[in-house]
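User: Hey, quick favor. My workstation is busy. Could you predict this chain's structure for me?
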Amino acid sequence: MPGWPAGSSNRFIRLVPGSVQPEVDRTITVLVARQTVLVQLPGGGAVELSLDRESEVALHVQLFEQIKHFIGTNRLPQGHELPSVRTLARHLGVSTVTVGRAIEALRDRGLVETVAGKGVYVVDFARASDGRTGEERLQDFAALVVSQALTVGLDPALVAAAINGLIRSGRRRRDPRRIVVIDEFDSVDVEVDSLRRSLAGEGIDVAGIKLGEIEANAELIDRAGTIIAAPHCYGLVRQRLEHRIGDIVGLTLNLDPEVAADLRALPPDTRVLLVATVPAFIGWMSYAVSSLSLLDQTPEAVSMTNRRALAGSLSGADVVVYGSGCRRDLPGLIPDGVRGVELRHVVDGDSLESLRSRLKALLLAEEDGEPA
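Assistant: No problem, here it is.
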């Protein structure tokens, strides 16, 4: 970043009011500037955490949503240590209670875990909090089943055969031609539409559900041969559907070429308003618009959660660029004479080919009479 001393990428930076040269304070895992915390990542780079004090959304909810988003998109990788509660509270200008509530919500969602004497870490989904791998826990469970079988006089081999039969029966109920897409917002409709167009004529049925509706759609999910998780909630889906981890895939999404061309054609003096579902998504939307257009000014940005600011900003814009998660509620709020542009996405070509390879393998297994 401009003005920062060389070699300070792993240091805490505090901007001194009225000073161009920042002061190097001490070595920790964050960079701080104007109450924005940049959490350093292994191998370089950082993710930005910031709070909108004018938003109607509680500060701890904003922080929770941002960290959840970065974990779901793997920007905060599994096993990565988060800054301490005190560090985040001090540099975001909030109380430790506020940060603690956000961390507690993340812990309740199974996204982070506290390691005594060390700190808070993003959960490594392949390893339990007790340090044992899933395979080690499976061995313990298998030993328990064998012990119980011997206790009641059953042949463990017959028990294993019965379990295997149940697994085969359950798997055969899953249709390799069925795909379920899971996302947190209405953007799931865009992902479903994109997949349906890409797989048209191949006999594949694609349905979409929201993350909060997993339990209500348990039967639909159970019958699907493939479960697709949107990039920003991939980790959450794996947590909620741990028994189907082998069937969960993530797809890379690219900005729709038509939308990209539309943004590139914006005149430099266009007054652009960016609208995201939650504050955490504003950053990447700003990057998308800035990288594709030559505007004279930085676009104004607001989230759907801040309705008061949203109402005041819509009337002053020439173009409103909004995320697909806003497609249900926002268009009706855009004033006459103001153009709306939805940041639609399409499935990346390489991801689509990988999906086709998986579907082909599932269909071949079905033809051979093997469990899907």
